[in-house]
Amino acid sequence: MATEAGMLKVPFIHDDQLTRCMRLRFQSLQQKNMRPQDGEKLLHPNEHVYRVDFIRQHNLRFLHWDFQLERPGKVMVTGTSQHWTPDLTHLMNRQLLEPVGIFWKKPGAKDVECNEADAQEFGERIAELAQIRKVMYFLLAFTDGLEPAQLKGSIVFKA
Question: Which one of 2.60.120.390, 3.90.550.10, 3.40.190.10, 3.50.50.60 gives the CATH number of domain 7-158?
Answer without folding.
Answer: 2.60.120.390
